[in-house]
Amino acid sequence: MPPWPPGPRSPAFVGQSHRTLTASERATILSWAATGAHVDGPARKPLPQPPLDVRKGERVLEVAMPATYHPKAQGGATDDYRCFLLDPKLANGVSVTSARIAPGASKIVHHVILFRISRSQVAEAKRLDSGMRGPGWTCFGGTGLGPAGGGGSATDSLADANWIGAWAPGGTGGRLPDGTGIPLPAGTQIVMQVHYNLLNGNAPDRSRAVLTVAPATAKLTKVQSTLLPAPVELACAKGERGPLCDRDQALRELARKYGSLAAFYPAGLLLLCGRSPENVTPSAVSQCDRRIDTRTTILGAAGHMHLLGASIRLELNPGTPRAQILLDIPRWDFHWQSMYTLRTPIEARPGDVVRVTCRYDVSHRRHGIHGVPTTPRYILWGEGTTDEMCLGLLLVTRE
């Protein structure tokens, strides 16, 4: 049975009863472990995935990387972010009702995100693809494409990130609530971003995704993905020494590994969250508030951190009489990440505030990452597995 990371302060989620143990079941397992955890036969093979849930009027749409990709990293980095253009050949519009992502080389795939791109962005994606050797193109932080139509602010792109689906270790995929879907108009194509963590080795990969889609005539309510990032500012632990313990040097290292834009993300996140990049105080707690500007129904919640993460929480209207926990994971485990669908959607009004709070345990760094020693350094928001992130994600509908 997969673990159930959300703690008791979280609201009720769909499927929760199938992944939690009763007190009696817990006692049985603890008793078995205390007596030596003896196994009376060979280990069983992992259970196959349940069959795809295809509802009346839906069809299955499968998309895969156009060719096998051999991940590689440059400049001493241990991560490779690669984007691949996938053409679902949509002559007519559809709405995605579920997305199941199957990583090819699961040992090295850190995450997969499916982005929808408009017909007007396809030419740019093809140009990036043809400009690099092998399938796809390097794409830290996103697709590397400009916004559709050339407009929209950074805040707009966070409010609607154009995600179709995502996978991270432990993710199983799932259906959107009945009556909702993610629209893909005719001519829409898909960018699959794959983050490879090469600390776990190297292997060829050909990841794919299986979607269920309903015709646009079904007129499903549009679902959007809202991203809630917070700055990460983790100083070297007491007793650690090294040139990268200096924040400016750490910023230069981010730029060297992931491109000059990566060095601007930490300042941008500080400004987004109402703090000054000129007066930074490192902290093992990262937090950011976002004000809601339109009537919103929250359908699901997820969190994302890397290997130093200790806990993550998403809250609505914290510190007020109307406070509600949207998701609370008190013991973060990088290997078990998922989107949690609320059993009862939560309504938010204009002026409400959503807060993401991440806590980190920098003592993990002393033992290395996956057994590989790490250089002491000031850790910032970064794309690598040995960097960190604090990211909340909400699935919402808006009026």
Give a summary of the structure in a few sentences.
The protein is mostly beta strands. 12% of the residues lie in helices and 33% in strands.
Shape: globular
User: SS-based structural class?
Assistant: mainly beta
Number of strands: 21
Instruction: Tell me about the largest β-sheet.
Output: 6 strands, mixed
Write the layout of secondary structure elements.
Elements: H1 23-34, E1 59-64, E2 79-86, E3 94-102, E4 109-117, H2 122-130, E5 137-138, H3 154-159, E6 163-167, E7 174-175, E8 180-184, E9 189-197, E10 208-215, E11 221-222, E12 224-229, E13 233-234, H4 247-258, H5 265-272, E14 285-291, E15 296-304, E16 309-316, E17 324-329, E18 340-348, E19 353-360, E20 379-380, E21 391-398
Parallel strand pairs: 8-11
Antiparallel strand pairs: 1-10, 2-5, 2-9, 3-7, 3-8, 3-10, 4-6, 4-9, 12-21, 13-20, 14-19, 15-18, 15-21, 16-17, 16-19
